[in-house]
Structures are given as C-alpha cells and as structure tokens.
Specification:
Layout: H1 2-41, H2 46-55, E1 57-58, E2 61-65, H3 69-79, H4 84-100, H5 104-128, H6 150-167, H7 173-196, H8 202-229, H9 231-238
Antiparallel strand pairs: 1-2
C-alpha cells in the first residue's frame, strides 16, 4: 500500500510539480521583464547604462575598446552567432535533422516555437522603441531599436529552446546538462559582445535574456503538455534515430 502511494505521488510530481515549477519560472521572468522595462522607460537605468558602456572604451579615445587588439574582432565573430542569418541556418539544420529522423510533428513544433519567439522580439522592439547607445561609436552595424536586445533575446530563444527540446531526447543526465550548458553559454557570450561593441546598453541585453528565457521555458512546458496529450508525439519522442 505504501509503495503504491509513493508511486502515485512520484507520478504526480513528474506530471504536475515540474511543469508547475517551470510555469512559476515563466511568471517570474515575465514580472522581471516588466519591472526592468518600466525602469528603462522611465530613464532610471540610463546613467548606469552609459557608465558601463563608457567603461569598456579607452579614456583617450572612445572609439577604441579596452583589451587586446584581437578582442574586438573576436567579439564581432561571436556576436554573429546571435544574428538572424546564423540562427536561421541553425534552426533549419535542426528541423531538417528532425525531418530526416521522421520526427515531422516535432520539427514543426520546434520551427513554430522559434519563429513565434522571433516575432515576439520584433513586437517588443517596436513597442519600446529605445534608441541605440550614442555615448560611444558602434563597432558593428545595427538596423533596429535597442530594447530588448534582438541578438540576446533571439539567441536565448533559439539556443535555449533547441537545447531544452533536444535534451528531452537524451537518455543520460550528463548529455542533458551538456546541451543546456552550451545553450546558456552561447546566449551569454552573444549578449556580452553586444555591450562590448557599443550597440546595446546592459539593460537591453538583460531584458533580451529574461524575455528569451521566459519564452524557452514556456515552450518547454508547452512541449511537455502537447506530448502528454498527443500519442503521435509520444511515439516520435521514443522512436530511436535510424
């Protein structure tokens, strides 16, 4: 009897507690983003934002970044990992792999989740319409407004969503940890380069990270729910890759 009760409680924990915990994290991220965006809109963060951006340039010439000569070029290379062309290629590659592996529904879900997140970023940028930093010269080209950082948010959406969804196919915990760690590292590096290159304020990047994380967590919860109610998706998830 006790064993049966424990099994029921364990099943409830897996089915309810974990998704509920993820949803609470989503709510926390959304509230954090709202609070941050309110501070940005009121100009409360402008002074500290500008100080940080200036501190990354040499005092004698704001056009020159601090650090060795190769760091700026490396930052431009890394920041491209959060650009639309690279993220589109990565998304297409992963979705193509899922199609080849005959996980058609999973591929469609992944593509829809990421593209919808990209559209959300466009809506948020248009809504806040924050100008780019003007206190230092930009070290790379820009084409949109500043808050939230598109590179930070899109990289978080893409890498964290792909990392979380592909980790669900992994059997060993160490593989899951590795996939998620790489996804987080890429998102962090991309966001940091945006500030170093002078094209975003730190709060732009922070806002992009928080919004991207919220979307990735929401997609993870949605994937669990859809798979639980879809026999076809459950069958795909357990089908070995041929």
């Amino acid at each position: 009897m006790l064993r049966g009760t424990w099994q029921r409680l364990s099943g409830w924990d897996v089915a309810v507690t974990r998704p509920l915990g993820l949803l609470l994290l989503v709510v926390a991220c959304v509230l954090g983003f709202v609070a941050l965006s309110d501070e940005v809109h009121e100009g409360e963060t402008q002074d500290i934002d500008e100080r940080i951006v200036r501190s990354l340039r040499r005092p004698e010439d704001p056009a020159l970044p601090r650090g060795p000569w190769w760091l700026a070029e490396s930052a431009r290379d890394v920041t491209s990992l959060g650009g639309f062309p690279v993220l589109s290629l990565i998304t297409a590659t992963v979705c193509g792999f899922l199609v080849v592996a005959r996980r058609y529904r999973t591929s469609l879900f992944v593509l829809s989740a990421i593209v919808t997140g990209w559209l959300l970023n466009s809506v948020l940028k248009s809504l806040f319409n924050r100008p780019r930093p003007s206190v230092v010269p930009h070290l790379t080209e820009t084409m949109s407004t500043s808050f939230p950082s598109g590179h930070a948010m899109l990289s978080a959406i893409t890498y964290l969503t792909l990392g979380a969804l592909t980790a669900q196919f992994a059997e060993h915990r160490r593989v899951k940890v590795y996939l998620l760690s790489v996804a987080i590292l890429l998102s962090v590096l991309v966001g940091c380069t945006r500030v170093y290159l002078g094209v975003h304020y730190p709060t732009d990047v922070l806002g992009g990270w928080v919004a991207g994380l919220a979307w990735a967590l929401f997609v993870t919860v949605a994937a669990k729910g859809v798979r639980r109610h879809s026999p076809a998706l459950r069958e795909e998830a357990h089908r070995p890759v041929e």
